[in-house]
Specification:
The chain has 266 residues and is of the alpha+beta class. It has eleven helices and twelve strands. The strands form three sheets. It has a five-stranded antiparallel β-sheet. A four-stranded mixed β-sheet has the order 1-7-6-5.
């Protein structure tokens, strides 16, 4: 469905053309395609203020935070990306990806410097139309945008997930990590249905490349490694990724919860 929306923007650049798509044979569109296009035509009236996460609700990182403080922030408020500010919250200098922190060697933590890990952010006015913003973020492969008010002060953030949800409703996005619980810098707990790609991005692993393309979830990955449904408390060594996979919960047919522990290679 995400690819369908993206292709619409590549092929249909005007509202008039989108209206023409609605009149096309429904067989040329995926389920719900016509309804999505109608939602796009409605969304043309929306701007950043309709989807912004206000400043008071945004979890930010201070550029002066050390390694331990940053890990504490991640444990207390896990996100995939954190806006980073300098001196005061109105001065957002970019964003920090959680992967950059979790893959940083703890033994070198005295050399940890958020400034070196910060990625540049896109800054947009709160009046920017939703569809224009979506196209800007999609074309530049951006997941969050920093919203500024008329005085240039930080007003909040907009995620591409929120933009798409406004258009097509709730959907599963890799930027969401609510099915992953971070225990510490070397251990996480995941639902069995968690996508391998999401774990790889967050944890710096290559699970998604270890088995064939038909396996996309952690549960399927473990089942393939073990050759059968493992019992609760079973620990499986994944030597290629240097992790232990411990089964925490299972039912008669599925792996429900797994703890992943990185193995020290020192």
């Amino acid at each position: 469905m995400f690819d369908y929306i993206t292709n619409l923007f590549k092929k249909k650049s005007t509202m008039e053309e989108l209206k023409e798509v609605i009149e096309d044979d429904d067989q040329t569109q995926p389920d719900g395609g016509t309804e999505i296009i109608k939602n796009i035509l409605t969304a043309v009236k929306l701007n950043g203020t309709d989807v912004v996460i206000p400043k008071v609700s945004v979890v930010c990182a201070n550029v002066d935070m050390d390694y331990d403080e940053t890990m504490q922030l991640i444990h207390s408020a896990p996100k995939s990306r954190y806006p980073v500010y300098e001196k005061e919250k109105d001065n957002i200098i970019g964003y920090l990806h959680i992967k950059a922190v979790l893959t940083f060697p703890e033994k070198n933590k005295k050399h940890f410097d958020i400034q070196k890990l910060v990625k540049p952010a896109i800054y947009v006015p709160e009046s920017m139309p939703v569809l224009e913003l979506y196209k800007e973020m999609r074309d530049n492969n951006l997941h969050i945008a920093v919203v500024i008010d008329e005085y240039g002060a930080f007003d909040g953030i907009i995620t591409i997930t929120d933009l798409l949800t406004k258009i097509i409703g709730e959907f599963d996005d890799d930027a969401q990590i609510n099915d992953i619980q971070i225990l510490n810098d070397s251990s996480i707990i995941c639902h069995g249905a968690t996508k391998l790609q999401k774990i790889d991005e967050l944890w710096g692993l290559n699970l998604d490349e270890t088995h064939d393309d038909d396996i996309i979830t952690l549960g399927g990955y473990i089942f393939a490694m073990n050759g059968a449904l493992p019992r609760k408390k079973t620990t499986i060594l994944d030597e290629k990724n240097a992790v232990n996979l411990t089964i925490l919960e299972v039912d008669d047919r599925r792996i429900l919860k797994v703890q992943i522990d990185k193995i020290s290679t020192r």
